[in-house]
Amino acid sequence: MKFRAVRPTQLGSVDAIVVPLFAATPPPTWLSRATRAAIARLQKTEHETTRLYAINTLHGEPRVVLVGGGKPTDVDAERARNIASAGIRALWRSSLRKVAFGLSAGTISDERAAQAVVEGVLYGMWRPEVYRTREDEHRLPQIESVTLVTDRPVGDAIARGTAIGDATNNARRMANEPANRMTPRLVADAARALAKEAGVKIEVLDRERCRALGMESYLSVAQGSHEPPQFIVMRHKGRGGNGYDLGLVGKGITFDSGGISIKPADNMHHMKADMTGAASVIAAVAAIAKLGIKANVIAVAPCTENLPGGGATKPGDVFKAMSGRTVEVINTDAEGRLVLVDGITYAQREGAKRVVDVATLTGSIAVALGNHFSGLFGKPGSFVDAIRATATEAGDRVWPMPLTDEYRDEIKGEVADIRNSAGRLGGAITAAAFLDSAVEDGTEWAHLDIAGTFWFERDRPQAPKGPQGPIVRTLVALAERYAKD
Prior knowledge:
This protein is 35% helix and 20% strand. It has 15 helices and 20 strands.
């Protein structure tokens, strides 16, 4: 798909125009007089034309899709993205090929609004029904070009929006794949393809290499599966030199049955997406490289299945993590933290002084925050504040959670240094405390628990039900924040 930005007088012929409509605000003057008159007539007969994400269509040549934008003073980058997605989704089943977009009004700049439209269009173009055989149930939109109508220059907004939008969709695509079509080896293959396209260095550590590095905690999760574990490492040296300005670690459980502590059958099929954290960091580092961000970033994705095979880890087993701490496995369904601690240690030993891990870690965070906020943990407080500010600016909603010594005390083991489960009460916090055990002095660290936001059971303006691809935008924005000129 091609994007371009033009002045209203340069628009030319298009098949459809998507126009945001805001309360107490007339439609843009660059629309034809006839179109503005038709919109005025519609507003007289339809009283909710500006209701948020409401769709009204004027059928003509070109077709005009009106998207309710609510109050113009409430428009931020996230709402602008959603407006664009809602507009493009209204054209899903059409055969139109050339579409124009009016930028959303509000408090954001034209450059930010243009980037938001590009991202929103790409989000809205993504569909999950890839394995349906009826053509009318999985046919992708036919749109070939999108023109942004604006009076002002938009800089590199199109390039940024394309890189971030594609990255989010890559993460969604990987998370949406069935577990038999996205095994650890296939995740590694997908990462290699993205790395080659973006110019990122990649290596994949096998079981023997991980064992030699002392990753017993990570490998303990892989014991019950015939699929070999794949420890994926991707490196972007945007500024050159030694060390990494940012380390990204993503949980890569390509299917989580719970192991010996097996999960209930209801909704277990969603555990194909328990590798969303890995997909997020893999996609994000590729976008960071494509944008040429002047930061050194390492992305680590420890991938494996968690299955109850004959060699599977048993509750009560003890292993030594790469950090040197011994771990008592109380619950094999608390496996994500077992792979992440070795990923965090590896990133630090490779020179990352700031580490952000992303994981569908606990159902407890969804109980606490629902489906609209990801949980944010970390230290020191200044780094947590920076993560929250960056996420908010990028359009991801995160909420800081407590992490104090009382919770760290709860994960002390009976026969080992730490245990991987302290029960249901405060489960998201004690899981974060377990990860904190791998964080070395002097490392700034944040943990993003996306178990409540990685998947939606209903359609949203920017996405159909299914995988949502949260946090990718934030990871790219963090690399920009810590870039060195």
